[in-house]
Amino acid sequence: MPKNLVIVESPAKAKTIEKFLGSDYHVMSSFGHIRDLAEKGIGIDFENNYQPQYAVSTDKKKTVAELKKACKESEVVWLASDEDREGEAIAWHLYEELKLKPENTRRIVFHEITKEAILHAIENPRTIDINLVDAQQARRVLDRIVGFELSPILWRKIRPSLSAGRVQSVAVRLIVEREREINQFTAEATYRVNAIFDSVDVAGKAIELKAELQQRFATKAEAMAFLEKCKDAQFSVDSIVTKPAKKSPAPPFTTSTLQQEAARKLGFSVSQTMQVAQRLYEAGKITYMRTDSVNLSDLALGTSKAEIISMAGQKYVHIRKFTTKSKGAQEAHEAIRPSYMNAHTVEGTSQEKRLYELIWKRTIASQMADAELEKTSIYISISGVKHQFVASGEVIVFDGFLKVYLESTDDEPDTENDSLLPKMHQGEKLLPIEIIAQERFSQKPPRYAEASLVRKLEELGIGRPSTYAPTISTIQNRLYVEKGDREASKRDYNVLKLKAGKITDKIKAENTGAEKSKLFPTDIGTVVTDFLTEYFPDVLSYNFTADVEKEFDNIADGDIKWTESIDKFYKKFHPIVEDTMKNSERQVGERILGVDPKSGRQLSVKIGKYGPLAQIGTVEEEEKPVFASLRRDQSIESITYEQALDLFKLPRQVGEFEEKVMTVAIGRFGPYIRHDGAFYSLPKTDDPMEVSTERAIEIIEEKREVEKNRIIQTLGAENEIQVLNGRFGPYFTRDKVNYKIPKGTDPLSLTLEACLDLIAAQPEAANKKKPFGRKGAAAKPEKEKAPAKAKTPAKAKAKSTAKAKTTAKPKAKAAAKK
DNA sequence: CAGTGAGCGAGCTTCCGCTTGACTT
User: How far apart are CA A412 and CA A392, in angstroms?
Assistant: First the structure.
């Protein structure tokens, strides 16, 4: 066994470092934190000055045992976790849990994984910075208190299993407030004027020039008056202005900017980006993917330079040191970059290739020269009018970094000025071919997408690179927020056109407001946010994290004791928790919309046990209220009086067919027709309010036709096996279990024997009958099922394997006792 | 697969940040 044991956080890092250090060193990984506050209960001893109750995490027992053993066999232990608050705490927890001795323990740090940096670190060991550790303990305890005291209030006042926390609650608030801005937004129209002119350039050659009026008009009358004046006006070039301009490359990727660009350029979700990056990291292709630093190592700068020279030449090189601007950045790692700059591409899946190329280009571009542009504006004066037209163009004089990469933006470009303008003389006359004044509307604020929410959180200093993706998942799993699309709606706009001395006035239609993969707040998300913001405005405020970060910095500097800081917070916070628990009303987000014209009873909307509903009447009245569920695309916040009333028009009878009544209604799976005990889904294109008798019969007959073709053949006694046509092609079924048919087999040629063989070849299919609770972060709580019920099978499974697996959670053991 | 909108119980749910793993629909 080597004399030295080095402990780092990540196994991939361990592997790399071991290569640098030689045979005297053994490098192991802690896999992140090894201990945390006790899982059960709050894990803080309030009677004893907030003493944290730490326990080795169940999935780390094995790691800790292995590390303990290795420590015993080593002379010196080097704690080489990251040089930030969490990393320092990891070193301290290791020190405590492994019962290390000061005389043979060293704490070392490095920010880049290069041989030089690591050897330098080994030569400059220090001791654990207990103030920094205390800052982490304060962070941890604060988050536990906030999360575990707020969540139970939600269970009691809104709905079980909900959650609140310093990060997630603010993330949801951002989305709820953006939705309100959108709902309250009213588009303002202005008239934008564009013209196309005939003229000649300096060489006398005929040219066409597009230009926009610098002024926009607030009303149609003003736009019309302007066009009238243009009828007899003279147009000429007033001046030509040419200005040099520069564009600089964006800094190398951090976690947040990588997530944004991968979303914009590759269409990846935030978690997808992280998964692909993780694979590239583990394969040694890129540096660590969870970082807030834009810094590149000297090694990376050197190899980038060499690469640029060989690719484009010396004049394309511009070595830059970027500095981090984001709030609360801890810079324990380098920026995300290729491990080897000379590898322009990698082997792997297409996702891996595309993400790698994005990282490579971004890194290379960051060390390349500015692009030089020339912006030209031709100002065109109009006789008798003070306003001017301007034609603008932009020419790239030197492409610089644009040779490889340009960062995308979320906003669509508004003006097109990338064209080269003709060279013209001042005073040159122009003849208008046409002048068009178009009504243009101001834009709604955009809804957040996953990546733009991450950017906003980072801007506010909320969350860390390792938590952006999980936070986005959490708020969706809790059903506070939903990712979805919004279809475009039609909007009319006015177009005034002056051509050949005549003005025409037309109405055109455009599609507007389409959105894809955006985050929408749910009614629960809205109610939870409103409730928390009312009672806990401090915690929900956008600068809460920034404020506590300052406090943590003071602890790290040794200016305050962490327990005093927590005490100050808790003394203020806890009484509000108690008071809210006792005195606040149950929250259902009720909105009273008006009175039902038929019955004269109150019409309102609120959150019911199974989701948002509309209600006519109240429970206090003698007559019971009538209920109707809201549709999926409706929300308590924005539903109108008329839309709510419409909900009560269903179920609706649409006539008779085969002497049985047909009824249209909306169920869990959307609109359907019910006839003679059977259900027929309504296609999306049919409006449940409008469907006619004839159309309903058509839908029923269509489905019957499909049903008829469903059975290909039946085999065995009493039709034991049925060969069927399904949504995914032919398959066969026995005892309600479905089996695949191998590709290329004609389903008509199957015999009973062949099917039995196939069943024998797919034995596991028989075990798939029962639904198992899905494990892991991808688990999505089902809306419809009661949470307790949905959990049962998962628990039963954990129980049965508890003996076999040493890693079984204590929860499972607790369940076994009962 | 397509009602529901509430009843005493009994007991569960939950945070943020570090880091990967294992197993089929």
Answer: 18
d(CA A428, C1' B20) / Å: 70
Residues 544-603 of chain A: which lie with beta carbon within 7 Å of strand B? 545
Q: CA–C1' distance A43–B14 (Å)? A: 13
Distance CA A432, CA A422 (A): 17
A635 touches strand B (CB under 7 A): no
CB A653 within 8 A of CB A675: no
Cis bond before residue A651 (omega within 30° of 0): yes
The tokens 């590149």 sit on which residue?
Answer: A296
A193-232 pLDDT per residue, tens? 999 999 999 999 999 999 999 999 999 999 999 999 999 9
CA angle at residue A242 from A239 to A248, to 5 degrees?
Answer: 150
A773 touches strand B (CB under 7 A): no
A463 Cβ nearer than 7 Å to chain B strand: yes
- Beta strand pairing call for A4-8 and A515-521: unpaired
Query: φ, ψ for residue A208 (rounded to 5)?
Result: -120, 140
The answer to whether some atom of strand B lies closer than 7 Å to the beta carbon of A361 is no
Across the beta sheet with A660-667, the strand order is A652-657, A660-667, A670-675, A678-681
- Dihedral of alpha carbons A757, A761, A764, A770, sign: negative
Length of chain A: 818
Nearest-5° angle of CA A174, CA A445, CA A414?
Answer: 140
Closest to A129 (Cα-Cα) out of A81, A174, A75, A178: A81
User: Which bases of chain B are contacted by protein, using any atom under 7 A from a CB?
Assistant: 1-6, 10-21, 24-25
Average pLDDT over residues A143-158: 97
> Is the pTM here over 0.85, yes or no?
yes
> Phi, psi at residue A455, to the nearest 5°?
-60, -40
* Residue scoring higher pLDDT (A762 or A146): A146
Catalytic residue set of A: 288
